[in-house]
Fold each of these.
Amino acid sequence: MGRDDIRIIAVRIRDVTYGYTNIPVLESIDLDVMKGEVICIVGPNGAGKSTLLKIIAGLIRPWSGSIEFNEERPVIGYMPQVESIDWNFPITVEEVVALGLWNRSRVMPWLNRDRERIRKVLEDLSMIDKAKRQIRELSGGEQKRVFLARAIVHEPELLLLDEPTTGADPSTRDDILRVLYELNREKGVTIILSTHDIKGVALKQPRVVCINKRILADGDAKDILTEDNLLRIYGLLDTSTVL
Ligand code: ADP
């Protein structure tokens, strides 16, 4: 077996349980994510998708269980749900992206090299002409692009994306997916994203994990996202709205 054939586990989640009150919202979660893999997490509202991403990102410590990484902790890029952010303060697009560099270096990034990175990532996401605009002036789809830029500008090895395409129009969605695939293919970035978009996002991913407090299914998108499973997971009566 050649070196490239050895599959390395990037994230090993074992028996993770967590709740905000005394009732768990995640229970006994076991999940192995391989290096260079793209994984899509689906499940109804309140299923615990955001919580799981925050636990992997190290923002929340689980009640019990463990999160282990291959060797040392990887550089992580995290994109929160943009809808939950209050924009009642002035900050420009390029300043938001610069915060992603600050995460890594703890120094405000105004070196030429950093500026070049910010420019490149905004260009890749078709946002360079809006670099000096206030973030609150942008549409929801544009804000998504900026937050993705912030999550990837420091060249993470592991990317965690909380509903990166929700509320985005199809062209924004496809741009976001294109940038993610490039990072995955060209730089080997491991990607874990959550989505509600079964047809536009989940079915295009190689591996889908369905959760609702526990892991309900894990495997190939086409095997997992069947009408029967969607009915079971979401309680949908009319699956034609998502398939
Ligand atoms: P999802 O991302 O799948 O919609 P979440 O992880 O956001 O699910 O939420 C899981 C459960 O935890 C929900 O019942 C939600 O109401 C609850 N929850 C999420 N965040 C908090 C919080 N900060 N405080 C209390 N309860 C929370």
Amino acid sequence: MAETIKVLVSEEEVNERIKTLGKQISENYAGKQIHMICVLKGGVFFMCELAKRINLPLTMDFMSVASYEGTASTGHINLKKDLDEPVEGLDVLVVEDIIDSGRTLSHLIKLLGDRKASSVKLCTLLDKPERRVVKDIKVDYCGFNIPDAFVVGYGLDYNQRYRNLPYIGVVEFEEENS
Ligand code: IMP
Ligand code: MG
């Protein structure tokens, strides 16, 4: 199957929204230091752009949790890379590309709580609320609510491709006719 990408959120819209989120976060955390945790690989573009828009002291760490293959959630969470530093006593801001079923995040937030972070907040570029399976996730900051479609770009992939698109696009699959 071949696929085409249709723009859902333009580069300008994404960048504007990230600017606004950065301002909001800077205001809400005034006087504090933020420990940003990026969920690899999808969250990396968003985290870099967001961090540049936050005018507070901050530190960063990265972790990798996999739950997806192709376009279907397997429901199985796999901790592929753990954090380098302990989070105890830190004000953690988890930065995600997208929340879909919510399984990845609920697992992660529990883990960070167990490790005694002093606060854990969640910032996601995209949210697909219709798809939520784990209902009790509090999204503190969200770039865009989007409909139930498989999207790529700005860090998000389809089988590891399209992460480098500077906009968010919907993947449309086409039958290849011979
Ligand atoms: P959840 O555990 O179902 O919430 O899945 C979250 C993870 O699945 C995200 O961090 C993404 O890596 C991946 N994912 C969910 N929806 C999409 C999508 O539309 N495009 C690309 N990746 C997605
Ligand atoms: Mg992800």
Amino acid sequence: MATEQKVGLRLGYKAPNFKANTTQGEIDFYDFIGDSWVILFSHPADFTPVCTTELAEAARLAPEFQKRGVKQIGLSCNELGSHEKWVQDINQFGNVNLSFPIIADPTREIAKLYDMLDEQDLTNLDEKGIPFTVRTVYVIDPKKTVRLSLQYPASTGRQFNEILRCIDSLQLTDREKVATPQGWTPGQPLIVHNSLKTDAAKEHFKGKEVKEVFPYLRFVNL
Ligand code: BEZ
């Protein structure tokens, strides 16, 4: 079912600040970000099966996010007490110790601010018929800019390794004049950024082989 189009939080927009209650106390989001990267991700509801598998995987991968200087923070429209009880199930299911905060947003104030509410799934509603959140992900950089967003429906669990892969791409392409091809993983050939002509690329990546397939498609290994 299509609904009226709204402008959401696009890539390059400044992530809006908010104050929130979380499983680790009250936070000011900008203070939480500090000088780090952040992944802010919502799930539809506590004590639901797909969400339990997702949060367990996010907890299992916490060291991978930390290695990249990325703080994790979850969100749903449930109350704090519900989050606290549900975390015990997540830890039991995944044999993990979930260590990142989960925001309690029962008024949906933050979900609205971050365009996370489900406008299309008539099963993803609370008992009053008010939409829950979808599976939204924002990757926010230390300047508080939205660098990546994903939205999955309630029925489809996310792949958190894909989010790590995107973070690797974002952090690498911030440092180097490259882009990453489809399915790229660290260590694989990179694409020379199209702002560099091939001769300039050979100069820029001195000592590395720049392979030209077409004038617009050049590979380099860094
Ligand atoms: C789940 O996590 O399994 C789920 C949550 C809300 C709607 C559908 C599925």
